[in-house]
## 1
Amino acid sequence: MFSLSEENYLKAIFHLQKHSKAGVSTNALAEEMQTKASSVTDMVKKLSDKKLVVYKKYQGVYLSEAGRQTALQIVRKHRLWEVFLVEKLDFSWDEVHEVAEELEHIKSEKLISELDKFLDYPKRDPHGDPIPDAKGNFQAANKTLLSNLSKGEKGTLVGVKDTSSEFLKYLDKNDIALGKTIEVLDKEEFDGSMLIQIGDRSLRVSTMVTVNIYIKI
Amino acid sequence: MFSLSEENYLKAIFHLQKHSKAGVSTNALAEEMQTKASSVTDMVKKLSDKKLVVYKKYQGVYLSEAGRQTALQIVRKHRLWEVFLVEKLDFSWDEVHEVAEELEHIKSEKLISELDKFLDYPKRDPHGDPIPDAKGNFQAANKTLLSNLSKGEKGTLVGVKDTSSEFLKYLDKNDIALGKTIEVLDKEEFDGSMLIQIGDRSLRVSTMVTVNIYIKI
DNA sequence: ATATAATTTTAGACAAAGCTAAAAAATAAA
DNA sequence: TTTATTTTTTAGCTTTGTCTAAAATTATAT
């Protein structure tokens, strides 16, 4: 159907699209894809010919409905494989991304529907991100960044924004995990750092941490 | 490490090598790879430069020890994934090959060692073929073709040579499966067809069938 | 043993996806 | 509103793996 490269571009545009309703710029896409702007222009033209994106010179690129559906299916596969790796193969949440990047491109409808069943139709991946269903539907959680909470507020950790191995290992080390209850004991307005209560311990965390943790109140 | 294409060539040479101790011919490899002889020559030169095969112009190609080990690891991955698909995802044995062709190229040591553990270190794939261990060791079963048995002899079905969907579906339809006991009730010397006892039924099968079923006596 | 046939290799071309360097367009600054 | 800067596109080249057509080699058959 689509080449490896085409699929990766669609996924990248999808992820960049989320953050702003404007078109995705060539440079942003080049950065995300770890490639050069000229290569992006070439590929974007190709995707445009295939009606997967809407593209006007110098105006950035948008996913078409077909492109969005394709991207959603890749995201679905990526996240299902992540669940598989963590739940069945004892991977930790900081190890799954790389492998899932490869597994997401395996082409078999049956494989994914059976995997979904085998995993008992999970709704979220190990980082708390929602898994689209076969039709591309998923509910974006009503979540907010920990940094938005005020002193005294509390909620449940439902996701992370930064999924880098370094950040996830930091969380593991400090016993910060999905599903834990976090309460803001104190917030330092000067630098945004917080003193939080998590489980039976309290901990001081920097802004780098608070802007990368999603909380459901 | 190696490209998709390189891996597939190594695997193809490995499979063709098994059948004759002579070098694998360019044409045979082209046939196996569904490509042209000229393309094969190019690739074989490349593999030779990388010391994965031994190649002399017009003399066919042989796997080097490094090439053999690489091929064995690909075969290992292919067969482990086949077990996974059949045992965990309810695939039937005629559906697994295509998908395993893709899965076998995923690059992660940990993925394969964990999968092996998850499947409880299977020794054979769903077609009865042995699964090499992490070091590339596997025991070739002492098996023979059903066609080699004489009237009155019996044994256990331990594998199939032809793994095409058509053949496997024929076997399923006639309730011929791995592990079943087969006895040769009668053998027609003229065309090699046999009357066999399998389970509580007897069945007449053609040579096309008897030369594609492996029996352990 | 020589002619014919089959196999294999070489030479040159092509598509995909990337790159560099230069030109063009858009944006920001003076 | 010009000028300067940044962004984007174009043009042309590279690599990987393929192809076709022609040449070279090996095998087969008379």
## 2
Amino acid sequence: MGKREAAHKLLTEKLLTAAINRVEKSGLEQLRARDITNDAGCALGTLYKCYDDLDDLIIHVNSKTLGLMKKALGDAGSNISDPVEALKALAIAYLDFAVENKNLWSAVFKHRLHEDQPTPEWHRLENMALLDLIAKPMSAINTDLDEQQLQVRCRTYFAAVHGIVSISLQDRFISLSGDLLRSELEHFVERLAN
Amino acid sequence: MGKREAAHKLLTEKLLTAAINRVEKSGLEQLRARDITNDAGCALGTLYKCYDDLDDLIIHVNSKTLGLMKKALGDAGSNISDPVEALKALAIAYLDFAVENKNLWSAVFKHRLHEDQPTPEWHRLENMALLDLIAKPMSAINTDLDEQQLQVRCRTYFAAVHGIVSISLQDRFISLSGDLLRSELEHFVERLAN
DNA sequence: GATTTAAATGAACGATGTTCACAAATCGAC
DNA sequence: GTCGATTTGTGAACATCGTTCATTTAAATC
């Protein structure tokens, strides 16, 4: 790899790191191109040499977050043989990840591309990979479903848990204490999976 | 009411209508102050005489949407004595409303105020009123809960259904046909409520 | 009808994402 | 190592936003 390509790659990385830190600290809506390039120590226009636009950079931020999420849920799901208990642990792990990485987690689901700009296929696949994390215990519980039906069911249950976590992290409705929310979530999974 | 006050009120209404139409047609993210005032036939600055800012106007748009939603769900919930069937009908009605009013419905949950700007209390109450719509069948099913626990449970179940509907209207994961989604939602409520 | 008061106006401002002509540094050939 | 060719970083400039405010206009008050 030549000096030129190496410098470009380094800069691309620094911009991503700067963007991640900004989102983590202040949220997606506070992200500014000028702040990112200042943090990365390069000119404003450089961002557009490394990424198509801000949306493209944000997708890469979200990609990193999905990687963290996958790791966190992967750790939580293994070593639990009982499928219902595994699903409970996964739901709690999802909640914990969202609480501990609120801004990064929010960014994944808040971000929308501009009109008629389709999400890149590789990023769509990263999103869908979340469903694989609950596939094993789900298949143990729903033995009557074929693979396609199972995937749909995974989506449904994931979406439900996601909704509960999502509503909890907003101040839209009554707010729950952390413990009450966790027990509510466990009750929910138990009710759904048993 | 004097001529002055009447004209002001009329303009306030025209701006709201224009904003609603714009959101309905093109979505919240395409809403522009200049478009709204053009549609309403007034100057740009007038918007800020009728509303604090764009956010304030959007809150009023969302308030109208919540009113429509309340009406749609109210119609769906009544006349069904069996609580599980009532909850199913409510969930389907919620899905239908979201599909038929996608942009308006999305705006309600997408919109966030700027840093440290608390949502006005009257609008928070409008949001929470959604939970009352499912309170009656929920109380019939959960006879062991006191009023406060019931409200928490309502929030949890609403959030779950909301999550399923919400994920469905994005292209984040695998997409379902309308019929499959409806049957999946009915299965979900049945599983949860029985 | 004259004076006071309040509202509508739209030009101007600051902030923002994005572009592009230019400069600087790297690369390839000899 | 030298020299053109080429690619990349630069930042001023641009277009588009939301928002403000001095001015204009019209209603309300006397």
## 3
Amino acid sequence: MTWSEPRRAKPETKRAKMSETRQPGQRAQSVYKALRRAIIEQALKPGMKLPEDSIGEQLGVSRTLVREAFGRLAVEGLVELKPNRGASVAYPTLEEARDVFDVRRGLERMVAETLAGNLTAAQAAELEAHVALEEKAHGRDGPESIRLAGEFHIRLAQMTGNALLLRYVQEVSSRCSLILAIYGRPHSSECAVSEHRQLIEALRAGDAARAAHLMDHHLQAVVTRALLTPRGERDIREVLAPYALSEGLTQP
Amino acid sequence: MTWSEPRRAKPETKRAKMSETRQPGQRAQSVYKALRRAIIEQALKPGMKLPEDSIGEQLGVSRTLVREAFGRLAVEGLVELKPNRGASVAYPTLEEARDVFDVRRGLERMVAETLAGNLTAAQAAELEAHVALEEKAHGRDGPESIRLAGEFHIRLAQMTGNALLLRYVQEVSSRCSLILAIYGRPHSSECAVSEHRQLIEALRAGDAARAAHLMDHHLQAVVTRALLTPRGERDIREVLAPYALSEGLTQP
DNA sequence: TCTTCAATTATCGTATACAATAGCATCAAT
DNA sequence: ATTGATGCTATTGTATACGATAATTGAAGA
């Protein structure tokens, strides 16, 4: 590429945003995001071993960056990091699952209370549009439906304008995906569309108490619809874990 | 070292916990904890630059481990990580500060609601004892008083038995320390002892609504007592930040 | 044939090496 | 004297190297 005016320095400093020029730290972020998505979409299944070498090789980076990503994912509870035994996709216990859902209910209640009466017209419209999408994708296309339902909650959190609240909601949402992958029914509808509709209505009306209440019960419903169903202990892990623990052994 | 019974395999697997034998990953953890404490105790002041080399040298580890610690601390919002410019102790804006306090109020309300009516006698007694300590350290020894007040909230979170809730409360507490270091009054009493006493009483009585309400107002009081006092923009940073931002510059 | 021990291999934990970038100082030109 | 360019230095981003630990496999003995 030739520059018509190579003498002037300033225009160059503006970091050309060409697709080729990846700024540093970007690749680490990419690894993190790739793994995160893979876990949430269950391409990497709960409990699966995550060797640093093979993953780095696959993604075209060194172990260093993979390790960095593991660190972040471990903080978020998506991978487990055992000393000298490496990383594996987290396999939350039922107790941890309950903890996550409890916290999630609390956080999303905050979201509802914050948003009640403070939605702009544009925001309300966007939420309605989102629910419409959910309705369209309802019966067919299971994964898409699940993704949309999750996104609804994320959008709500974003609308609060509270960055920390958003981060926490994202984190518990991710972990809920994992949890439902393990303990959820195959076709639990996740979020009933009508419940989302009612919630929007309450937010619009500025009825904080009702909005919070709806959100709380909505998430509670998700739990009872999906969770609480160890579905026949489909995994030997679940069966053996208590025995292993009582013997002081670590589950493989 | 000689083993009297080297044939039996089981006793060996118990990993001897000799003080000399540091298990791997331990050193990384140590670096993390050291930096965390240093930041919270304001040995490392907000905005201070954190060069990887010097810190690693000081702590006797390589940049690798320092970097790992930075990653975790960045997730928790205690350090800021800018590409190619390294790490520095976080310097939360007033807006971020408000976000943190809002989330904290929500989280601790959860704690209060969870604990109300569920305190064992032993737990109640421990809390009373803690408050007694706070009272003793009230006037004198500022730092100690602040530490105790913070610990009270951590102990409450621990008593819920919800590991995730505990982690979040710890995180927001850390960040609140940073925030108060920047925006707090020199001698804000932080937590009024009487408010802690009232809270314990409500928890004991099982009055969830009153407990939540007390907690909420207690933390709100902390904010108004301490925060909201940019104390005369004592730092040029605060003054220049908006201008720098509007010009796309990053504050040094 | 089954158990037990030992050697091998795979993988991790940490340090170091090397390349890239940003900040700074020096110096020339107007 | 001030402004802008240019090379130097410090520090970061990433990869690789090496020692240490755990998994595995194979062999030997019962």
## 4
Amino acid sequence: MKQGLLTDRQKEVLRYRKKGLTQQQIAEIIHTSKANVCTIEKAAVENIARARETLEFLYTLDGTHLCTLQQGLDLLKAPEFIYAEAEKRGLKVKYDTISLINRLRDANPERFSGRQVREDVEIYISKDGDIYFG
Amino acid sequence: MKQGLLTDRQKEVLRYRKKGLTQQQIAEIIHTSKANVCTIEKAAVENIARARETLEFLYTLDGTHLCTLQQGLDLLKAPEFIYAEAEKRGLKVKYDTISLINRLRDANPERFSGRQVREDVEIYISKDGDIYFG
DNA sequence: AGGTGGTTAAGGGAAAGTGTTTAAGTTTAT
DNA sequence: ATAAACTTAAACACTTTCCCTTAACCACCT
């Protein structure tokens, strides 16, 4: 069975980083350029984000598809829309308006720019009213 | 930024599976062989395991210092030493003797020459028994 | 003996990921 | 303003993953 997502190199950099070393210091220790350390660290952070996203998907499997936030939609209007769709199914979203907006933006920062939805976002809901994204 | 670990194909299979379809049925729907569906599903499950492992690593990032391999130590005696130290802390090293020696040498080739430790090497251990170096 | 559901192995072509260098850019702190 | 810390982009060799096919194998079940 395969290891985790992070390469040995990436783990190494993260550990040194955790200790508070600069990229330059790490570069000297592992004998490469600081630019490379930066790249490796960035890749590591991305891999961690991908791991999170992957497990998010599992929740969408348990939940049912609720609706789609269409490209161009005002983010501030999303909660009202989501609440309405949930009510149609007799479900109560377990986030208030503010929390929901935050959750939307936090879950997929690159899919929202300012108040705008940049690309279609699939919304899923579980029986207990938790919200997930596809 | 890239999406999650799972490919579209893998998600597709997982969704059908969740609905209770057999691999044969899915194979017909997505126009391929059941062997392929099996392979894709297996890859998906592996990817999910990798995602979990990756996030596990984050929690163990702040591992504790285990011991120091002192300069001049015979590399072949290192594993026994490390095992003993780990046991003192109630931790089980997740590498057998051979794997551990390889990991030691691979991690920092310049710190070992032949069977000898050239300079002190700090050993760290995480809660899941993974070993890394300072 | 068939039928069904699942798994494995070998192999191939396309695609994606990794580590690296070089070279440029930005932010931040002294 | 200078240096240090950090980020980004492009290009490269190399390795790995992904999806696919074919062919075989195992465990049930009636």
